Amino acid sequence: NMLKMTDLMISDPDQEIAEGLIVDNEPIELENEVIDAICPEAITSKVRCAAHTLNLAIEEGLKIQSIRGALARARTVVKKLRTPIYAGLLKQENKKQAIRDVETRWSSVYDMLYRFLELKDFCLKFQDTMNDLKLSLPDWDNIEKMVASLEPAKIGLVSLQKSDITIGDFFAIWWNILSKLQKVDSSLSQAIVISMDRRSKLLF
User: Fold this and answer.
1) Which of 34, 71, 143, 188 could staple 149 via S-S, CB 3.0–4.6 A?
2) Euclidean distance between CA atoms 122 and 133, whole angstroms
3) For residue 49, what are the CA distances in angstroms to 44, 111, 118, 199, 202?
């Protein structure tokens, strides 16, 4: 069985891979040549390379100066929210506790910002009397865009780490991440797309 190239770029990673299969009578040697051309390395090795490449692309995107500035200001407020006084107030307001990120792991940056957005109304409610909680509206807007930009990558990375992934899944996941990032159209998503495109030339 040979994989049709047009079926390697399906938009839905959950689509049945069987739809991308056709039956023909070509020699097995030709089939192997096509598969080798598509994926010259073992699929597990290529997927590991793809996951690593995606991580590098996101880390590169997070180094944009405007992103770093908004992220640093968000971290400052999050640190305040985790102090005993604010943590107690959050509990009284029936809110979840803030999450600190691990700066060397971008997925934890996503988790921190996602939870921080859930606490936005709390911060806005108390910012006039508790200046430590104050962020500018552009900063809040940047944080929302960062979460929207990191979400497709985080979901895609989880899919790439599945043990039963196929070559069809692999291509579908990669292009699905790119498609969703392009729709977000933020400075971070654009930077990640550019880095993924550049790095994918070595991957594919």
Assistant:
1) 188
2) 9
3) 9, 24, 34, 10, 10
Under 8 Å between Cβ of 196 and 61:
no
Per-residue burial over 77-103, b = 16 or more CB atoms within 10 Å of its CB, e = otherwise: bbebbeeeebeeebeeeebeebbebee
Distance in angstroms (rounded) separating the CA atoms of residues 202 and 183? 25
Distance CA 16, CA 146 (A): 31
Per-residue pLDDT tens over the stretch 36-94: 454 445 555 666 677 888 899 999 999 999 899 999 999 999 999 999 999 999 999 99
Residue 21, classed as helix, strand or coil, is strand
Q: Rounded mean pLDDT of 137-142?
A: 94
Q: Which amino acid is at 84?
A: P
Decide: residue 23, CB within 10 A, 0-12 exposed, 13-18 middle, 19+ buried.
exposed
CA-CA distance, 158 to 171, in Å (whole number)?
14
Q: If we measure between CA atoms, which residue out of 202, 114, 120, 195 comes closest to residue 154?
A: 114
Q: What is the pTM of this model?
A: 0.74
The single-letter DSSP state of residue 164 is T
Instruction: Examine the pLDDT at 168 and tell me if it is beyond 50.
Output: yes
Domain assignments of the chain as residue spans, ordered by start: 2-63+152-203, 65-147
DSSP letters along 75-127, please? HHHHHHHTSHHHHHHHHHTT-PPP----TT-HHHHHHHHHHHHHTHHHHHHHT
